[in-house]
Write a structure and sequence with these properties.
Elements (H helix, E strand, L loop, with lengths): L2 H5 L3 H13 L3 E6 L2 E6 L4 H12 L4 H8 L5 H10 L4 E2 H8 L3 H13 L3 E4 L2 E4 L5 H13 L6
Antiparallel strand pairs: 1-2, 3-5, 4-5
Helix pairs in contact: 3-8
Length: about 150
């Protein structure tokens, strides 16, 4: 069965998404005649973790996308990096990252809803990742920003 039929999207959409995944280094593609065979790029363990979460039923596609988008904004990455050193007071976190109070409230809210951060009594802290995918997202965020950037 083809990927388009398996995922319930059109062949054009699945083809375009597969191209993006290949360009991002997540997939390898091999053409044999009129068929295109795709396989996971095993050098990137993160995609395998995402696939395992989906296969094991721990998260559905919506849950995976919700979690993946937790750290797609530069400000949320800065917050996670700043909180990796321990709990911080909200205003200090704003000063340290250069994020305004209003923007910080929005970004913290998004991280709280995705179970990456806790915010109680003006104190913010990074939560223990609830699964391998969350742990790897945090690892990637920490690797992408140096302390000098925060």
């Amino acid at each position: 069965m083809g990927i388009a039929a398996e995922t319930g999207v059109s062949e054009d959409v699945s083809s375009k998404n597969l191209q993006f995944l290949e360009l991002g280094g997540f997939l390898k593609q091999k053409r044999e005649g009129k068929y295109l065979f795709c396989s996971l790029n095993r050098s990137d363990g993160f995609l395998q973790i995402v696939m395992d979460e989906l296969h094991d039923g721990n998260l559905d596609v919506e849950g995976i996308m919700h979690m993946l988008t937790a750290l797609t904004h530069e400000r949320r990455i800065l917050i996670v990096v700043a909180l990796a050193n321990g709990q911080q007071e909200f205003d200090l976190l704003c000063r340290q990252t250069g994020i305004s109070r209003l923007a910080m409230e929005r970004q913290i809210d998004k991280l709280v809803r995705r179970s990456f951060v806790s915010s109680l009594g003006g104190q913010c802290r990074l939560l223990k990742p609830e699964n391998r995918m969350a742990a790897n997202l945090i690892r990637l965020a920490l690797a992408s920003v140096t302390l000098a950037q925060v």
